[in-house]
């Protein structure tokens, strides 16, 4: 069974500007492909996503098109940089938009995100990767995503440093190993839930 994954890249920079969080998100997609998971990455800031907590804020809001991709995927990965020890403002906006799913259900009456797996990829030149991971995974779990073991991967450079993830060189035994573990476990759990979703309460 081929699964689908969606990575939401939460860089503050629009394409085609380089993005370390997008790079790590694409590495997650490559690792997921080893487990028969097809995927795509959407850089959120390239789209006119409005602030709000509904599924459609109207007036040309781009979120409904992105939401359709979330609904179509079995795995959602939030890829975010660290800013001031926090997830990016774009990542927080995405989580606020996902808050609307608390009121949405599937065709059997389950919360809309039940049966989907959530994960996170974090990069930055400062401390905060564990804090960012905790914030994002808790929010995803709140709206119904299931969180697998080893559900995050990250790279953090020297505090106040200038080296980007893309320039830091291969990291097969650190970030690379975490990315591989994320992919394996996310695909495993997504496949289980696709075959046997949570019961209708």
TrEMBL record:
Signal peptide segment: none
Species of the source: Actinoplanes siamensis
Protein name per UniProt: Flavodoxin
GO molecular function terms listed in the Swiss-Prot or TrEMBL record: oxidoreductase activity
Record-annotated NADPH-dependent FMN reductase-like domain positions: 4-156
Coiled coil regions in record: none
């Amino acid at each position: 069974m081929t699964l689908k994954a969606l990575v939401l890249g939460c860089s503050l920079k629009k394409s085609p500007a380089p993005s370390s969080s997008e790079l790590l998100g694409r590495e997650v997609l490559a690792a997921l492909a080893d487990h028969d998971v097809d995927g795509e990455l959407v850089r959120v800031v390239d789209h006119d996503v409005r602030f709000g907590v509904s599924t459609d804020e109207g007036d040309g809001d781009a979120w409904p098109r992105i939401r359709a991709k979330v609904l179509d995927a079995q795995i959602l990965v939030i890829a975010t940089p660290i800013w001031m020890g926090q997830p990016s403002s774009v990542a927080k906006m995405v989580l606020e938009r996902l808050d609307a799913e608390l009121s949405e259900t599937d065709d059997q009456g389950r919360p809309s995100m039940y049966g989907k797996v959530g994960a996170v990829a974090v990069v930055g030149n400062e401390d905060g990767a564990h804090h960012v991971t905790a914030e994002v995974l808790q929010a995803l779990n709140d709206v119904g995503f299931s969180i697998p073991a080893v559900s995050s991967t990250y790279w953090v450079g020297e505090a106040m440093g200038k080296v980007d993830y893309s320039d830091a060189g291969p990291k097969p035994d650190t970030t690379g190993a975490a990315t591989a573990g994320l992919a394996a476990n996310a695909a495993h759990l997504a496949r289980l839930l696709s075959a046997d979703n949570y019961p209708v309460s």
